[in-house]
Structure formats: structure tokens, C-alpha cells
Amino acid sequence: MSVTLPFVPEPGPEYRRNVGLMLLNARGQAWVGRRTDTDLDAWQMPQGGIDKGESAAAAALRELEEEIGTAKAEILLESDGWVAYDLPPELRAKVWGGKWRGQAQRWFALRFTGTDADIDIATRHPEFSAWRWVARAQLPALIVPFKRPVYEAVLADFEPKLRALGL
User: Fold this and answer.
1) 15-164 CATH
2) Fewer CB near the last or first residue (10 Å), C or N of the chain?
3) 116 near 124, Cβ under 8 Å?
4) Burial of 157 (0-12, 13-18, 19+ CB in 10 A)
């Protein structure tokens, strides 16, 4: 697995602060949703912005509920730093009005404590049209190419720790 993006203690101001969520079921599979805002068959783990004055952990739990309709999860792991990615030039002007170059993400692994029936992607502002559980090794192949190095870095960071937890 090639890891091209290192975690850094603090990203620059040109990056929007964001959390990424690896929600894991009892079998250790990760939750992914198909994006509604693209014509690509793009699947990703939940992610979202950190509000002013909000901790990254609080943002993770809030975003989980906002994006998949449940907060039934407990935080297992938090990345040691931030991993940033740049938006492709053709998206940069369209997304967030061109304010940021990309996103810097703090990643969390969470244990899902509910049942599949608790997941409801028909949220107030739906971001996903479908969802499923997948083997963690499949994650990089499902994400859009410009975010693939982020998923590879997260897997490289979390996998040994998740295995130590028996997941």
C-alpha cells in the first residue's frame, strides 16, 4: 500500500478543517455511501466540516448523525494528526466558492453500536443515495481518485490499531 500523504500536526489556513469517519460494524467492515452530488459511482465514508469552537470528536459524532441518521457509535481511535488533500483545479472554484484549496481531515474510527435499521440516509440534507458495509481493504478502490491517498494513509494508520482491538 503506498502512502503519499503524511499526517501533520497542523494544516495551513488554505485547507478547510474536516473530520472523516470510519464507522465499523461488528464484523469490522466499514460503512460507505454513494454520493448524490456526482455522476460518478463514487462511494465514501462519512465526512464533514468542523464548526467554529467545536472539537473534532464532537464534529465526528454530529456529522455521523447528520449524514447517516444515527449517532449510535463510540469513538475507538483518532488519527494522530491531519491529512490534507487538494481538490482538482476544475472543482476548486465550484466547491466552497473557491475559499479553500482542499480539506484537512482528522480521522476517527468508530464502533457502530446500533443495528442496520438505525441507519437512515434520508436525512435533512441527504448526501448519499445508497449505502453498504465493505471490507476495509476495498475502501481506496471505491473513493474518487483524488481522495485515494487519504484513504490509503488512514488505512495504514488505523489497520494495526484496529487489529490490536480485534477488529
Assistant:
1) 3.90.79.10
2) N
3) no
4) buried
